[in-house]
Amino acid sequence: MQNAQTEELHTKAFEKKFMLEGLPGKCLIIGFSGGADSTSLVHFLASNREKMECQLRAVHLNHCLRGDESDRDEQSAKNFCDRLGVPFVSRKADIGAIAEQTHQSEEMCGREQRYRFFLEQAAEIRRMGMEPVIVTAHTLSDDLETAFLHLLRGCALDGLCGIPDRRMLEDVPLIRPMLRISREEVEGYCAFYQLPFATDSTNLSDRYTRNFLRLQVIPQLKKLNPSFEAAYLRMCDSLRQDRDYLNSQRDRLLAEASAGCENGWKVSVLHEAPGSVKSRAAAEILRTAGAQVDTAAIQSLIAVIDGQSGGYTAGKVCMMVRGGILSAEDTSRYVVGTVPLPESGTGTVVIPFEEWDDSGKLIARWEKTLRLAVISSDDYHENRKVYKNLLYFAVDYDTIMDNAQLRARGPGDSIRLSGRSGQKTLKKLFQQAHLSRKERELRLVLAQGTRVVWVEGFGTDQASVPGPETKRVLAAFRDKAAATERMKSEYEPQDDR
Predict the structure, then answer these.
(1) pLDDT at 401 over 70
(2) Statement to judge: residues 345 and 436 lie in one domain
(3) Which of 439, 424, 410 is nearest to 338 (CA)?
(4) What are the φ/ψ torsions at residue 129 (nearest 5 degrees)?
(5) With contact defined as beta carbons under 8 Å apart, do 452 and 415 qualify?
(6) What is the reported pLDDT for 494?
(7) What is the pLDDT of residues 5-34, one digit of tens each?
(8) Which of 27, 74, 388, 396 has the fewest Cβ atoms surrounding its Cβ within 10 A?
């Protein structure tokens, strides 16, 4: 009887602490490993989907790290979703092999592959006319462990604030609605509803730092204070208020410093800022430039801002001051060829790309190939699921007319994206997405004269989205042979082993 009452208390706590903001009315892409945390997340959202008026899609990446156990977990996750009537999508990725090839840790590699999978699903959902939101099952316990990991590495204020409850993953919102719910409450929820869940055998080994904290360190701290997680949450709420204030001052400083500058920031404005705000501004400038952001890099850039250093170079990014303006220059130069669409709207287009170093040497040349077709609106809506990942973009053909071309962004380009309010310049759009200079330079734009119709990775202009009145749709498909976008160049370094 005592256990049943405890489980019910956990269930009520779970439901009370679950954060719904930003979820109703959306199509939710749920990261579903099959463990207790994500099982409770899928079950809760499935139980409330009608009230929230949202669509669900559970996404499972089989990391292939535990042999048959990984396959059993994938099948169990599918069976669970089938019972709840939740659409389920899975994929196998040999994380061990990929991590070795890319010289990453398995944890980092798995995270990168999962997020790439989520973004692919988000792109498909947008093509179906719905608004995607990625939802993950990180809990208060995960948050606490992450803060400890940051502390071990020597973090600043942001590190102690743990995991953010929401952020943008490229241009898709990523929300973590369970960050106020402990793992104990999750397990009580699963017990109350008798939900089956998988236990990853690697979670029981304390050879991983996070597991050591979870299995050895935090239980000892809970002996000193059984409400340790709740105490951490109170601390975080206070620290996050301080962080948010400092970030607002950082944004105000950067806006003032960049006012009137096409590319760069006024050093005189940055120099006069308080140290806590200046360091945050330096970190954001480095991040926007695509440079590595760490304590040493921030201090080096502050030395440039304060006139103690003539410049700072990190990889291919060079931070220089000219005429009182700090600019972040990628020493490589990127060229995207301008390609007009075929007059008939059908055919194949090849967009050439080049990368040059600062000495004028061609480093690499590659291309993207797109197949274009003008199709009826009915055909487009009936076959969107068939097109799936090969569909690159689709626009109302009659809104393009003539003079349409694929190109890189130009000065003053702006777009009113479907589902968002207001016209926004591509410069601001890219800055808010924290794209590096290379990413900004290589994003494709479909334009009719000076009017931007579509931006790669962001979507279509509201006036050109295929709708009920659309008669013809211009659909662009990735060429299968070029879908991997591999470099095709004799300028690539050769493997001489």
Answers:
(1) no
(2) yes
(3) 410
(4) 85, 15
(5) yes
(6) 29
(7) 666 777 788 889 999 998 999 999 999 999
(8) 388
pTM for the model = 0.64
Residue 497 lies in a domain: no
CATH number of the domain that residue 30 is part of: 3.40.50.620
Distance CA 433, CA 280 (A): 17
Q: 186 with 178: CB under 8 angstroms? A: yes
- Would the pLDDT of 286 be above 80? yes
Contact 259, 405 (CB under 8 A): no
Residue written as tokens 């042979």? 481
What is the residue whose two structure tokens read 């070029």? 482
249 and 122 belong to one structural domain: no
The 8 Å CB, 24+ separation contacts for 297-303 are: 302/278
Among the candidates 224, 257, 275, a domain finishes at 224
- The residue type found at 279 is S
Asked if 11 and 145 sit in the same domain, the reply is: yes
The contacts of residue 467 (CB under 8 Å, 6+ apart) are 396
Decide if 117 is inside a domain: yes
Helix runs in 18-56, H state only: 36-52
Partnered with residue 311 across adjacent β-strands are 320
The token duo for 127 is: 């093509």
Range of the domain at 426: 334-482
> Euclidean distance between the first and final Cα of the chain, in Å?
68
Residues 439, 387, single domain; the answer is yes
Query: pLDDT tens for residues 216-271?
Result: 999 999 999 999 999 999 999 999 999 999 999 999 999 999 988 877 899 999 99
Which of 224, 256, 277 marks a domain boundary? 224
Q: Is residue 232 part of a domain?
A: no
Count of H-run helices and E-run strands, the chain: 18, 22
Cα angle 88, 89, 95 (rounded to 5 degrees) comes to 135
Count how many domains the chain has. 3
CA distance 134 to 114: 11
DSSP character for 417? Answer: B
> Facing residues of 318 across strands?
313, 329
Let me know: does 84 contact 32? Beta carbons within 8 Å. Answer: no
Residue 204 is predicted with a pLDDT of 66
- What average pLDDT does this structure show over 287-313? 86
Q: State percent of the chain over pLDDT 90.
A: 41
Q: What is the DSSP string of 278-333?
A: HHHHHHHHHHHHT---SHHHHHHHHHHHTTS-SEEEETTEEEEEETTEEEEEESSE
